[in-house]
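Sequence in, structure out.
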Amino acid sequence: GPPVMAPLEVKITGPELETLQALGEQFRQRFEAIPQITHTSADLIGGAPKLRVALDENRLRLAGLQLSDVALALNDSLQGRVGGEVLEGTERLPVRVRLNEAQWGAADSIANIHIPLPAQTLAPSSATASGPARVDSDIAATSITAVPLDVLGAPALTPSRSPISRLDGRRVNTVKGYLVRGVLPEEALKLLQQDLQAHPIPMPDGYTLSYGGSTDERAGVVDKIMAPMGLIAAALMATIVLTFNSWRLSAIALLVCFCSLGLSLFSLEVFRYPFGIQALIGVIGSIGVSINAAIIIITALQANAAAARGELRPIRDVVMDSSRHIISTTVTTFGGFLPLILEGSEFWPPFAMAIAGGVLLSTIISFFLVPPMFLLAVRLGGSSLAASAADLNGDVKPPSEQAKEPAWSPDHAA
C-alpha cells in the first residue's frame, strides 16, 4: 500500500501525556514479545535531559535582577556573545566568546555559573590635599559582583517532551513495530491481537485504541480500488455481449475471467508472494489480458459456419489455426514481465507474477475450456448461434431453414 512509517502500528488517543506515554510503553513491550518484530519505538518517549531552574522572585529582587537578566546571562555563557570581528581578506568573521565547555559540561557546572549583578554607584575613596576630590577608577565598587545560579533558584534535571501528535484533534501516541523481511503485517497483527485478547491491557476512561500501519492503509486503498468495480464490470459485460451478440457465448468469456482470477491467485500462492496492493492490481489487470485468448477463439468459432453448427473437426481446425496468434501474444506478454519477476524486490514481482501467471495459465485453460463450452452452447441453442454465423458469413443459412428448402431437381435447374 502507500508508504507508512512502520508496517505495524497501534494508535492510542487520550488527553494526558503521562498516561499516553505509560500505555505506549506497555504496548511497546508487547510488540517486543512477538518474534517477527525486529525493533519497536513510540512517539511519546522521554527526550534528552533538560536542566530547569525555578527562580525565586524574592531573591531576584534582593539581587536587583530580572528574569530576562538571568536568561541573557545564561545565553551569553552557554551560546556565547559576539565580541568582535576578524578581517580575513575581504570577509569579516565574527568572534564569539563563551565559557569553556569544561565549565558547563555537567548539570552541577551549569548551576554554578555566576550571574553578574547590576552596577553599583561608587563613593569617592580618597581626595588629594592640593586638588579637588575625584573618583579613583582602580577601586572596585563592591566586593560582590556576581552570584551563582543555584543561589537564585533550585535547579532540577528533567526529560524534555517529545513532539505532541494529534489524531482527529486528540493527542495520540503511536507505537511502531518493524518486521522481519518477508513477513506480512497481517501475520504479526494477528499474533498481537491474540496476545492482547489473552492478556488485555486496561484502558482508562477517555482513551481509545486503533490499529494502523500497512494493514490500515491497504484497506483504505482497496476500498478506493473496489469502489468503481461495479461500473467496470457492467461495461465489461456490455462489451462482451455486444461483441458476441449471444448471452451463452458471453457466459463462456466470463467463465474464463473467473478462471483467470483464480489462476492469478494460484500463481501467487505457488511462488509465495504476498497479496498486497501490487498483487491486487496485477490480478485485475490479468483478467483483461487473459480474456483476449477466449475472445479470439470464440470469435473464430462463431465466424466459421461449420463450427457454429457444432461439427467437431471444424472446431478443432479453428482452434488450431487460432493457437498461433494466442501463443505468440502469451509468450511476448510473459517475456515482457519476466524481468520484473526476476527483479528480486518485494514491490514489482507480485504485480508481474499476478499478470504473467494469470495470462499463461488462463491461455492453457482457454484451449481446453472454450471449445467444449462452445460446443455445449451450440447444442443448447443451435439455431440462434447458426443464425449469427450466417449473418457473419452472409451466405450460410441455419440448419432449420436449410431443411425447409426443397431438394435439388432438374426442374429447379431448368
